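Summary of Year 1 activities. Much of the first year was spent building the evaluation harness for sequence design. The harness presents a backbone, in tokenized form, and records the residue chosen at every position. We chose the following record to illustrate the format because it has been used consistently in internal testing since the harness was completed.
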């Protein structure tokens, strides 16, 4: 079943070009049509005035990424909340807001209960982004987008996450279209970005030997920091979660601009700092954050784009991701942090597919 791979996690990381193409297929065939989200979407989506995303863990980070797309492309407000928090607070519900749950398994108890609670509070429009057909959460939702990642066996979520991002991106563009903010030319560009995505992800997978070469430097560490800005901040969070989950190294992620508000105090020669630094509008800001780290002796591990000017120097390691795909760059930049976590875990000899204390599907509180 594993084919040439050593673990399900590695296999599933490598299945991403296929999982993404399968998930994208309908969008490439029909464009960003309401019908992607189920039979009632043409009736419900035009009424949506805001979005509330509820999820746990990696799926929550997909939600955090989606907030950037929904607000910038659809031009409506989006808030994202951890399901286990939402379900126990006196929340404010606006019935014009679409509740979006994100769940690989479709059975996560906290997410399911958060959805039920949202309904009790008066929400009547719920969309499930889910990888398992007919599981509990999509069955309790008016609308559904099934990711086509195929079965995910490794406890650490990988291909489910990147395909969730595709579903959420499609939602942002579809809402933008319905609101008259995405014209035919823009829709074509977004479609084109999706079309190129599996190829870009394949290029990122080809970086595996370089990333593996970094893993020995991490294996002996107790702590690591991950930095990103904008759309890449949630990817930094995801990278830190993957690392702690499977390698048991304590890892935290911060938006790079937050460093000087506290975490910089942690940085010394023993602190590796992973930076997601694509060539976007925030690159210069990220570079100055990197100097702050270097000045305190922190060792930098930078994922940069091919076309940006970064040089390796003492304490600064650079891997270039092959191609920048604009608005979908967050998806491409997920691959290197997944591979890093995987190879560091291998170097530490942990049980990659079944990390201690964790279960694949969390159906208890
Ligand atoms: C992390 C991971 C978990 C899940 C979380 C939600 O690698 O797998 O954080 O993302 O338990 O699970 P689903 O998406 O099934 O609701």
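For this record, the design step produced the sequence shown next.
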């Amino acid at each position: 079943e594993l084919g040439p791979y050593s673990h399900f996690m590695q296999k599933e990381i490598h299945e991403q070009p296929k999982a993404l193409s399968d998930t994208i297929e309908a969008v490439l065939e029909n464009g960003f049509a309401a019908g992607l989200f189920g039979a009632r979407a043409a009736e419900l989506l035009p009424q949506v005035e805001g979005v509330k995303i509820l999820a746990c863990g990696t799926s929550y980070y997909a939600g955090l990424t989606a907030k950037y797309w929904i607000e910038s492309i659809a031009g409506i407000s989006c808030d994202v909340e951890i399901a286990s928090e939402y379900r126990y607070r006196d929340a404010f519900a606006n019935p014009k807001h679409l509740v979006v749950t994100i769940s690989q398994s479709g059975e996560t108890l906290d997410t399911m209960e958060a959805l039920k609670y949202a309904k009790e509070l008066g929400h009547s429009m719920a969309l499930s982004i889910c990888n398992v057909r007919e599981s509990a959460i999509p069955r309790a939702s008016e609308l559904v987008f099934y990711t086509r990642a195929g079965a995910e066996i490794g406890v650490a979520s990988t291909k489910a996450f990147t395909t969730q991002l595709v579903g959420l991106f499609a939602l942002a563009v579809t809402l933008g279209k319905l609101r008259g903010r995405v014209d035919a030319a823009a829709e074509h560009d977004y479609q084109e970005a999706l079309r190129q995505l599996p190829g870009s992800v394949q290029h990122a997978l080809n970086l595996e030997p370089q990333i593996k070469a970094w893993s020995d430097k991490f294996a002996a560490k107790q702590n690591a920091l991950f930095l990103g800005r904008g759309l890449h901040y949630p990817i930094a969070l995801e990278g830190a979660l993957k690392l702690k989950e499977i390698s048991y190294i304590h890892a935290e992620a911060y938006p790079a601009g937050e460093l000087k508000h506290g975490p910089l105090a942690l940085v010394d020669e023993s602190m590796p700092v992973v930076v997601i630094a694509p060539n976007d509008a925030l690159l210069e800001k990220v570079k100055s954050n990197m100097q702050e780290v270097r000045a305190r002796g922190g060792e930098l591990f930078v994922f940069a784009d091919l076309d940006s000017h970064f040089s390796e120097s003492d304490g600064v390691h650079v891997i270039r991701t092959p191609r920048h795909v604009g608005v979908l760059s967050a998806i491409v930049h997920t691959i290197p942090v997944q591979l890093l976590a995987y190879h560091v875990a291998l170097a530490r000899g942990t049980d990659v597919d079944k990390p201690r204390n964790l279960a694949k599907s969390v159906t208890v509180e």
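The radius of gyration is 20 Å. Quantitative recovery figures across the full test set are reported in Table 2.
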